[in-house]
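Troubleshooting log. The previous run stalled partway through. Resubmitting the same two chains, unchanged.
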Amino acid sequence: MSESRFARLEDVVLDDAFPEVDLVLRRGRHVGRDDGEQYTFLVDAQDHLEPFYRRYGCELVHKSDGYFYLLPTTERLGRRHLSLVEMLVGQALALRYLDPEVVETGGVVSRDDVLAHLAGVVGAEALVKLLNPKLRRRQDEAIAAHNVRSRVDGALRKLAALGFVEALPDARFRLRAPLLRFAEPLRGADSPEAQLAALAAAGEVVVGDALDEEDTSE
Amino acid sequence: MRGTSTSDDPGARIVALHASGVALDLGTLELCVLAALHLKAEHLGVAAFAEDALVETFTQVIELTRAASDGELGARRRASAVLRRLREQRLLVRVDGAGVVRQGEYALSRLATGIVTFFLEDEALTRESLDVLVGTLLACLGEVRAALPALAGAPAEAWRARVEQPLAVSLVELARGIERRQRGFDLQQEVFQREIGALLAADWFGAVERCTSLLDTTSTLLAELHELLLRHAHRLTEALFEIIEAAATAGATDAERAARAGCEQIERIAAWGGARQRAWSDYHEWVHRYLRDVVRLDPSRVLAHRLREQLAGEGPRYALVVANAPSIRLLREDLVEPPSAPVRRPKRERDVEPEPEAPQDPDAELRERIRGALAGGARGLAEVTARASDPEAPLDARFRTAGRVAELVASSAGLASERERPWLPTTDDLVVEEWALTPRDAEGAGG
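Second attempt completed without errors. Output:
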């Protein structure tokens, strides 16, 4: 066990930072270096909190990119997988995070920039079809585009709540290190398929049939 | 456009500017001509140029920049057009005042000098420029402070000449010089941030060392500037407070106001350092993390390439799993009373059972009155009608009553009439045909 300012789990639980950190982790938020005290608290308390959360059927994951999150391995605490639109927007944000262009702005992107980037990579027409799955017949283009914008807005809000980005005024967002989680299956020396299978086995991602239980209520 | 409005209200000044239709229309060539004139004036130590010198400078610029030229005559014509445009926009001003008597002399206006200086001079704030400017400022303030003991009880003119004017001119101008260099520094930072992005875009992993070095150099410079600004601002504010106190004691309100304005300007200058350092600190941290997490971990940019393909729909679909614990349900501590029942009217039967009621004969009363009249001895229809009718009733009501009386009398009494039946009045305004009446009883007794 490394040097820690906490000798026992009791000290961790009694710390002022614990209630808030515990709540945000359980709600799925990723706590990164940008979160200052919360991140420092987790680093210090990691050795005590890992077995603590394991009893709830969760893993407290600490990535080398500099962020923590809670990964439920059972249904005891409640879990969900990100929806199609959240994944699309998350991957587009991750791609922006890897783009040297964002260095100029210190990692700040606008909603319009994300949308343009997404449309550029996926294709505007394909994006409209993907995000309007119930579209049976030719619909008014403006309505379909409006629907895409509002679904992307909703996804950005949810991703901000999960700590992937930080919402700033004027529909701008600061990209955060947890976005690299979206690229996790594509990292490493293994083939993406093998990596994806390993992550699915670890409960980090869902693939195949499980995705059909998509949340289409948005 | 100073002088167009004397008002201090910024809104009014903007409106006045808009009303006067101010505009600048400068192309690259015009800017180069202005810059050439500015540099020439500095080099030769001249303040103004004759018309020939202007045309010559224009021709030199054309040659240097290899802009299209149509020979000497064409160049002269084009020079005239460009110079006219510069004069119209008050970038060149005539300074000789000779009118049409001889060729004029022209100088760059303050506007032109400002524009050219922006493009030519590197006016970013540095340790050296800050030291020089603050040193001059302190010297200026030192002179003002030295004059303070002699100003006790002096007239307002003396305060104006020894305190107010030096503060208004020297302090304000020098402080503006610092602020201008701060803006220059901001501009330099923008360029610098673009440069880091461009370095990474061009040389990705190879640019890491250079980017790190650039970041560290700027961080050190900003920290030094911030520290210097704080230290100098403290000394300047101290000196200004001494002047404020002395002016307040002597009741020299204008001098006090000028010193307070100087104080505010110094505070603004010091605040710039803090704000820039905070902003830079965020940027510095973010870029460092980017270099460490992104560039070093993905030196060949494979990850970005794979992610782009994945997003374009070329890989298997997957979705991240996140914790989603429901919020803890907290029960209310206070008992919440259910809302009171709405006010309701008791139900009642809307359909009422009909009750038997004796039929009313509308003619019963009239019939009774006729019978009374006949019993009272009336033997003519006119008399019976007069007794049975209500004399107070309106005429049409009495008319209807007379008809009913005639009908009832016919059924309840014997009638006799002459061949010539006279019309007799029942009241002043109603006459009836007279019938001789015989009560039925009398008729029966008689017959």
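Takeaways: Chain B has 14 helices and eight strands. Confidence is low (pLDDT under 50) at residues 1-6, 443-447 of chain B.
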